[in-house]
Amino acid sequence: MEPVDLAGVRARVDAVLNEFLDGRARTAASGHLPAEVAESVKTFLGAGGKRLRPVLCVTGWHAAGGEGDMAPLVKAAASLEMFHAFALIHDDVMDHSATRRGQPTVHRSLTSRHASGRSALAAKQVGAGAAILIGDMALSWSDELLHTAGLTDGQLRAVLPLVAAMREEVMYGQYLDLTSTGRPSADVERAMRIVRYKTASYTVERPLHIGATLAGAETCLLDELSAFALPVGEAFQLRDDLLGVYGHPAQTGKPCLDDLREGKHTVLVALALRYADSNQQRTLHTLLGKQGLTAEQADCLRQVLSETGARQAVEDLINARLEQAEQALVHSSLPADTAGVLRYLARAATRRAS
Amino acid sequence: MEPVDLAGVRARVDAVLNEFLDGRARTAASGHLPAEVAESVKTFLGAGGKRLRPVLCVTGWHAAGGEGDMAPLVKAAASLEMFHAFALIHDDVMDHSATRRGQPTVHRSLTSRHASGRSALAAKQVGAGAAILIGDMALSWSDELLHTAGLTDGQLRAVLPLVAAMREEVMYGQYLDLTSTGRPSADVERAMRIVRYKTASYTVERPLHIGATLAGAETCLLDELSAFALPVGEAFQLRDDLLGVYGHPAQTGKPCLDDLREGKHTVLVALALRYADSNQQRTLHTLLGKQGLTAEQADCLRQVLSETGARQAVEDLINARLEQAEQALVHSSLPADTAGVLRYLARAATRRAS
């Protein structure tokens, strides 16, 4: 029934990633270099993840009528997941996060690994530095996976600008996010800009475009994919922001206090600050971004975020975007089966609990 | 007289970098994105640097008889300098360095820029995170400079594996360096491995190979260049290690206590630990990597490093490598004028005070 065998794509992508990383670990070990660099990336990837970007890349290829040997496409799709590993590893260093996907983050693991003979501070610094380097390596390896995917010169030349734009967008989004953190404001437009750069383009639009371009898509198809992708991508990040505050750590794999404790400038927070009465304003300004925020204080914040109506407003924004994306599919020229897969992915990405 | 106009190459490379970064800053500003990302990289590059890698890239091209339009070559050479900016920006974050090229490091500048409305700790974290992202962006931009340099498909395909290898080598070298820091030992072989990966290949051999490959060089020429490049690269890093301990901050642009205070595992230190008597051993083990090392204690360490004979031994290693590199030139088939430039660069890189 499915034109895209989603579980099959994930398995093929994982096989490419594991084979690549096993090869790197072996080469490193035989050259007196630390195998832990490749092994850390492998452990990180093995701990979970939806493989959303590779799946969308392959779906974009089908949308554009891609045919023939899928091996180069799968490798290009795997390079997007390797890039994502880079982005998350660095994100966790910058946010000082302790867990991801229910496991210790890469910098935490490496702090433990290099603790012997060092002070706690020195070990922490080595762990953070090692995770920065491992992220850098994952970024370089994502290039290498793409360059050695077996693409034709024409395919490679066509996707390189898309990959460059995708990287730039997510890095600017992360930069806006980081520099807004700790200074939450009622600036909803700025919060939406973070959503668009950090996620909407990076997570949904660009992977679809990259896959479609590998199959030789024309501009009009890319535009149709964008009409679907941008609202879904925004809804995906808005859901993520809600899960960061109201999610269950056992399901999300991340602590549920971090976003509040750091004072992330999300649409949820911006709307709450816009809607809040003076008592609620006081609570928000006192507790958002408070170092050492307790579980009780976090509950108090959650209550205010709900009572101002901000939580429901974000749910409404998600639903409106999902509806917009589904309408885009209805009016598109996409094959019915590909549209069906996109509809399924859109719902899964925006109605999830993890 | 010179086949390579060194000052001219530096000026052309800088013009490419400035034009690229000015364009990025303008595009960012017009899209409500922070221009400070591109501006920070521009300020960093403008503060100094020898442009050694671009100069060697262009020299490699001449060595292989490169002819015709030099614009694509200069852009490819500039991409190496952009990559180097990435490496140094991240290096300074990992080492918690305060100054580079006589200026505040990128993370320090950004800490100041984002201090308003934040605690000192929060500002420091934003500064470090922003510098990590700016480094990531510089790495992506180095890709983009290469991909849009105007190379033929054949040239691009030929250099991509060299660029990938170069990146992997320097990252492994940095990883070895970082994880050895704070635990200095008499393991000279490990210290030499750091030198080879972190610098010898990255700084000298790969840039020469990349330039030569763009001109269509055969393997035998690349081997001749390696015979020169590896000893020079090792000597370059050994000189850097000496300058990190004995250099004058006014000339090097960096503090002269950092390497000792962090306990960098250099050949200098490894040899000293090997040669030291029991009194000297005690001093080295007590003071190397000591948090809050004072200027007097650093002087004491310098004295021990000299008295064990380690400092002179490193000078001897540098001279032997310079001699080896010059012999390689004598026995090479390189045009006399290119060999002359390489000889000049080798001396400048190993007999410098900054």
Please provide a written account of the structure.
- Chain A folds into 2 domains: 151 residues, Farnesyl Diphosphate Synthase (Orthogonal Bundle), CATH 1.10.600.10; 203 residues, Farnesyl Diphosphate Synthase.
- The first copy, chain A, is built from 16 helices and 2 strands.
- In chain A, a hairpin with a 2-residue loop joins strand 1 and strand 2.
- The longest helix of chain A is centred in the middle third of the chain and has 28 residues.
Q: What is the CATH topology classification name of the largest domain in chain A?
A: Farnesyl Diphosphate Synthase
Q: Hey, which two chains have the biggest interface?
A: A-B, 54 and 54 residues
Can you identify the CATH superfamily of the largest domain in chain A? Farnesyl Diphosphate Synthase
The order of strands across the largest sheet of chain A is 1-2
Strand content range of chain A: under 5%
CATH architecture of the largest domain in chain A: Orthogonal Bundle
List keywords for this structure.
two-stranded antiparallel ribbon, homodimer, 1% strand, Farnesyl Diphosphate Synthase, mainly alpha, 16 helices, 76% helix, 354 residues
